[in-house]
Design goal:
Elements: E1 5-10, H1 21-29, E2 34-38, H2 47-51, H3 58-75, E3 79-82, H4 90-107, E4 112-116, H5 122-130, E5 134-136, H6 145-150, E6 151-156, H7 161-168, E7 173-176, H8 183-191, H9 196-206, E8 221-226, E9 229-234, H10 243-251, E10 259-262, E11 265-268, E12 273-276, E13 282-285, E14 288-291, E15 295-314, H11 317-320, H12 323-340, E16 348-355, E17 375-383, H13 386-401, E18 423-432, E19 436-439, E20 449-453
Parallel strand pairs: 1-2, 2-3, 3-7, 4-7
Antiparallel strand pairs: 1-8, 4-20, 5-19, 6-15, 8-9, 9-13, 10-11, 11-14, 12-13, 15-17, 15-18, 15-19, 16-17
Length: 454
């Protein structure tokens, strides 16, 4: 069905971040064509993709999903979630589906649900690599078959097409694995016959909800999409959209101020006009869409080892004045002690971060000569096994706490430890290992859809 305009709501920046219930009710009173929320991001790092754990707690996600689901069913409109569970792999999708089923059972709700998988089989990826269809992005190295074999989990970032397919099949609740953030909203607009340019632009504005409004908070945002425009307004009367706040969101997570690459094309906003309609409502016009060969970005994580950390702090000015030489001593002394345990140097790595001095900026710290009053030292060991990580960390911690330095007067410990136990096992840790795209002819090929009557 072709519509002249559609109205869509985004609940929050990420599922589980929360939103005021009053804002959702205000949105539903305006009769939107869809409500939804983005479920994840790669910003929190590779742990969630590698481990299969969700970014936010089940309790927080259930609260958000419960409100959205009940609102959608009561109003007969679709509800969509992108990048379920934080990373969008199979376990993350299953976690959100389980919550939906639980809420439905608790409230006697009935609906058709679509589950869109984004996790990729290694055999398929190896075939595509052999066929030369996987290419690096930017300065990423060429992908090797061995890299794919090492991956714990690989997901593809779906575009709007799987959501469109699920809408055509009559699904009212659509849960997606990893996808490009604007995809659910772009799909709904395209489902109603609106052009790709405003559909994609609207999705970009909606993906982080009230990040497009001021003051910044996690709250609900409403967007109206027409054939040649997008209008945006927050639901909370305490917030407002301005041309500047909307322009900032349009730049969000984008290398270019005017060009954004998506699966199958490019959103060009170089001729956009952003103007205030009221003191809290903004209209955007002039966006363009140019088709390109269809590509899907791949994200993958592999295990990097096992980690253990200890956190200590000092405000001894004598020690702070010679931290570099003291850290060198800690590294050398720890290495000697670890070697005595029969642990090879290549089996572990000790990392010392100095917060209060240059823990954030490292070598880029613009004021390296300013002496801090106190410094927190985070010692981390990454090792081949957890036992090695624990052993090496305990020796580093003892060396930090009970070692001399020139001018030292105290004969007890140098450091204050905020936690007991001081040594904290982090378990398996992961690293991203894919910055590549795959050329694909069928946008649905990598994202199988499963339907359930809930």
């Amino acid at each position: 069905m072709t519509r002249k305009s559609v109205r869509m709501m985004s609940a929050s920046g990420i599922l589980g971040y929360g939103f005021p219930e009053a804002s959702l009710q205000a949105a539903l009173a305006l009769k939107p064509d869809m409500i939804g929320v983005d479920g994840g991001s790669s910003d929190p790092g590779p742990h969630y993709l590698g481990s299969g754990k969700t970014l936010n707690s089940r309790l927080a996600m259930k609260r958000d999903l419960g409100l959205l689901l009940r609102g959608a069913i009561a109003n007969g409109i679709p509800m969509m979630v992108g990048t379920c569970g934080g990373a969008g792999g199979t376990p993350h999708l299953a976690a959100c589906a389980d919550i939906i089923s639980e809420v439905a059972a608790e409230h006697g709700l009935h609906f058709k649900m679509a589950l869109i998988e984004a996790e990729q089989e290694k055999g398929f990826l190896l075939e595509q690599l052999e066929a030369g269809r996987i290419k690096p992005l930017g300065n990423a190295p060429e992908l090797r078959a061995a890299d794919l074999e090492e991956a714990v989990r690989v997901v593809g970032m779906m575009g709007p097409e799987p959501y469109l397919e699920a809408l055509r099949a009559g699904a009212q609740v659509i849960l997606g694995g990893r996808g490009t953030d604007p995809a659910p909203w772009a799909a709904l607009a395209m489902h109603h016959g609106l052009p790709p340019a405003p559909a994609w632009y609207a999705g970009k504005i909606l993906e982080c909800a009230c990040n497009a409004a001021i003051p910044k908070k996690h709250d609900c945002l409403m967007v109206t999409v027409g054939e040649d425009y997008v209008e945006t307004e927050p639901l909370n009367p305490e917030l407002r959209c301005t041309p500047l706040s909307v322009a900032v969101q349009a730049l969000h997570e984008n290398a270019s101020p005017i060009i954004r690459y998506e699966p199958g094309g490019v959103v060009d906003s170089s001729d956009c006009r952003i103007e205030a309609l009221t003191d809290r409502r903004v209209r955007i016009t002039g966006m363009r869409w140019t088709e390109r060969p269809y590509t899907i970005k791949l994200e993958g994580a592999r295990q990097a080892g096992y980690s253990a950390i200890a956190i200590a702090a000092t405000r001894d000015p004598g020690l702070i004045g010679q931290l570099d030489s003291f850290m060198d001593f800690v590294r050398e002394s720890t290495a000697t002690k670890v070697k005595a345990l029969g642990i090879a140097p290549e089996d572990y790595q000790l990392v010392l971060r100095l917060y209060g001095r240059d823990g954030v900026m490292g070598a880029w710290e613009p004021h390296p000569d300013e002496a801090p009053t106190e410094v927190s030292i985070i010692a981390e060991v990454v090792a081949r096994t957890q036992d090695i990580a624990n052993a090496a960390l305990s020796l580093a911690r003892v060396t930090l706490l009970h070692s001399d330095f020139p001018g030292r007067m105290c004969r007890e410990g140098n450091m204050a430890f905020p936690f007991s136990p001081s040594d904290i096992e982090r378990g398996a840790i992961y690293e991203f290992m894919l910055q590549h795209v795959i050329e694909i002819d069928d946008p649905l090929r990598m994202f199988p859809i499963r339907y359930e009557d809930v």
